[in-house]
């Protein structure tokens, strides 16, 4: 059975997609069978893995709204053992359509259960909100990975995110645990970055992954080539950090 | 009558809040009466102006859901002529509640019309999505200001945003124009930033504001002090850029 992680934080631009795609790529490179599920209408994980989001048909939208089996949308990528369940822009209208559906929070969990045996890890990339798409990801997963950009505004949203995780655990998914917080876009030249790291470590203690992801322009260039960092710039600081994070995730079972 | 701008882009972390708050602050410093309306559940614009989002009652949530007059939530800030209609985390549940309401896309437009005469400018800060809160902002405004971070992934979402703007103009707000695209977090040391600027200027020509906002750590520090950059670090590069952008906005009537 796969270990299913949701990568979530309603604050925008904190590194959710970058974390989901690059950790998945390093796990696949370490001989694990990995699936990335893109439930963000922006479909950034889809294009970061070289798939054209505008020509994807069907996509995760059809899994949510028409209940087609997820195996019908899963596509291999250019990297061995790394598969993708792609998103497309039409997903932007899904949340309104899902509001009236029965067991609307469980759609993704039910979709993933028939294929979970075929993977070692499944990573669900979520949009920057706490709406039904993200709730579906939190209901389907065992652990949530929370990227936290080393700046002030992203810190503010953590209390709200923890509150939502607690609600999902109490009402929808008793197994939901926090796999860990990942500090991203760390810039050692600024005191703000250092303060944020201290603050997050003080509050969340051993829920914080030891690996810190540095700000690295190679990481922001890689998606324009449709490649994970492990393929685009494997010797860059960003690549080495995501490789170390992938190893840390492999060692750390989801925290009980 | 106030000129009403929505600051919108469904891509997360591109500088929407930073742009809304700092342009508003410089317009107020230039003797204009300015209102910032925060319709993001993260309430980052609220805390960036020194207001505690967790003790705000009532907030924009009550304007949307209980139809209370917006004047009951408007609060002055520490800066003269700069007012705020604050948000609070409870807004996260509003979109689901609004789905079944009559004329749900027009709630903000109706709320703003009685007070529009008291201001020269109104800036609406939106969440990173194209849901009902952002649609309300696009329906209430005359012009939309689109921050574009100088990186690859934010470029991808522009087509989808333009599509949504067209739909709103055809179905909800015939006056809706694009006031301009603002290039943000520009880093002259990376070729990626330069490529993005060229790409955006080529596609959107004179819809792109001349002022480019540089990456400047002072801009990311200011919110932790609850101050706009005009007060926190008025001589920084980020401050000078936002001051120039405010002047450009004052000169440029909303593009017909
Ligand atoms: N460590 C890093 N160093 C430099 N740039 C980064 C880093 N991580 C991510 N980026 C870039 O920052 C931007 C935001 O990252 P990303 O899109 O992964 O965040 P996100 O949380 O998925 O955003 P959204 O909320 O829109 O889904 C992207 O342009 C990305 O390429
Ligand atoms: N020009 C800049 N230079 C450096 N940091 C910046 C700049 N503009 C914004 N920031 C910082 O980058 C982060 C993202 O900016 P901001 O929160 O304004 O984006 P947003 O689009 O409003 O995000 P969201 O999608 O979550 O609403 C914040 O931590 C902010 O302080
Ligand atoms: Mg993303
Ligand atoms: Mg914002």
Record keyword descriptors for this entry.
homodimer; 256 residues; alpha/beta; eight-stranded mixed β-sheet; 12 helices; 8 strands; 18% strand; binds adenosine-5'-triphosphate; binds magnesium ion
Task: Write structural notes for this entry.
Chain A is of the alpha/beta class and 256 residues long. Chain A contains 12 helices and 8 strands. Chain A has helices at 16-29, 44-48, 60-65, 94-98, 107-112, 132-140, 152-156, 158-171, 191-204, 217-221, 229-232, 237-251; strands at residues 3-7, 34-38, 75-76, 82-85, 121-125, 143-149, 177-186, 208-214. The first copy, chain A, has an 8-stranded mixed beta sheet, with helices on both faces. In chain A, strand 7, helix 9 and strand 8 (208-214) form a beta-alpha-beta unit. In chain A, helix 1 (16-29) crosses helix 12. The A-B interface holds A 10-14, 17, 41-42, 44, 47-48, 53, 89, 92, 95-96, 99, 127-131, 149, 151-153, 156-157, 160, 164, 187, 190, 192, 217, 220-221, 223-224 and B 10-14, 17, 41-42, 44, 47-48, 53, 89, 92, 95-96, 99, 127-131, 149, 151-153, 156-157, 160, 164, 187, 190, 192, 217, 220-221, 223-224. The complex binds adenosine-5'-triphosphate (2 copies) and magnesium ion (2 copies). The site of one magnesium ion (MG) has 5 residues of chain A, from helix 1. One magnesium ion (MG) binds next to helix 1 of chain B.
